[in-house]
Design brief:
two-stranded antiparallel ribbon; 13 helices
């Protein structure tokens, strides 16, 4: 059931891209986002134990690298899927008055939403990375084409920071695949096998920071305020409400789960960065006169508030299940 949140979003994006009339494009986008939210809500309600992990689909995908199309959901995933559905509907409604290339706007918007759903439901690391990139790429065009203040600068800055973070994550995932005793991208299988201590010491900060860049971790946060100011209202809403959560989710789901020794070694350093980000983001937000700058800097603060308690948790290989209960 939950897999259809992804499929509905991508089908809706394809349909709305072919609709030339703006009123119909808006209606299709709203219907698609409502269906996604409805499917997500039904998926939650039909679960007997929402906090436990349940596979949705697991089928071979790219045999050469042992990657699979593996979707699943646990308590964290379900919460974020519902959050995405609510934000998607609200974003369409706030974009109702857009007049410029309406069908293209909503096609990119729904593609982004489909990618976000995919990230939160993926339990194969290669598949997660693919959805992660699908969710990020449309943001550049939404800001560069439909943005306002310094939109080209804001879009390019977001793209460059995202590119660097994604490259760091990809290097860490490939290295993990190569060093694992059984080469696989299956997150559950990798979490069950301990990785070498020395490897974890450099893989953890690489993957954690790679994801945390998108979550606005200080001092890699400077894309967020400019991105919020430049973005149209719906894109700014998604940026604060959903897209930045992708980074925090990846840091928790991948970096902290797979590299517990690395987390233990780097916890104090990363926690210090989080504390600085909390105080800095909140302080700078207080003196801003542009409301979008307030949202941008406050997002940096509240996202690093999320990082701090997760960093304080001591992970081990058996804790993978515990964090979902």
């Amino acid at each position: 059931m939950l897999a259809w949140t992804i499929y509905i979003s991508f089908i809706g994006a394809a349909v709305v891209a072919l609709v030339p009339r703006a009123p119909l494009a808006r209606f299709v986008a709203l219907l698609t986002s409502l269906l996604g939210l409805g499917v997500g809500l039904m998926g939650v309600l039909e679960r007997k134990n929402p906090g436990s992990f349940e596979p949705i689909i697991n089928t071979p995908w790219i045999g050469a690298i042992n990657a699979s199309y593996f979707l699943g959901a646990d308590g964290i995933s379900l919460t974020l899927v519902l959050l995405t559905g609510i934000a998607a509907v609200a974003g369409v409604l706030f974009s109702w008055n857009i007049e410029k290339r309406v069908n293209q706007f909503f096609a990119l918007y729904l593609t982004l939403i489909g990618g976000v759903y995919g990230v939160f439901l993926s339990f194969d690391l290669f598949l997660l990375f693919v959805f992660y990139e699908i969710a990020i790429i449309p943001k550049y065009f939404l800001i560069a084409i439909w943005g306002s203040t310094n939109k080209e600068y804001g879009a390019m800055k977001l793209a460059l920071y995202s590119f660097v973070g994604s490259a760091m994550v990809l290097i860490g995932l490939i290295a993990t695949y190569a060093i694992a005793s059984v080469p696989t991208f299956n997150l559950l299988a990798l979490a069950a096998q301990p990785l070498p201590h020395g490897f974890q010491l450099w893989a953890f900060p690489l993957v954690f920071i790679g994801f945390a860049i998108l979550a606005g971790l200080w001092p890699f946060h400077t894309w967020a305020p400019t991105g919020h100011v430049a973005a149209p209202t719906a894109a700014s809403m998604l940026l604060a409400g959903v897209v930045m959560k992708l980074g925090a989710y990846g840091a928790l789901r991948v970096a902290m789960t797979l590299f517990p020794d690395g987390l233990a070694a780097w916890r104090e350093t990363m926690a210090a960065l989080a504390i600085i980000g909390i105080v800095y983001g909140a302080g700078v937000a207080l003196v801003q006169k542009d409301f979008k700058f307030v949202i941008g800097y406050s997002s940096v603060s509240h996202m690093t508030i999320l990082h701090y308690p997760t960093l304080s948790y001591t992970f081990s290989q058996k804790n993978f299940k515990m964090i979902n209960d």
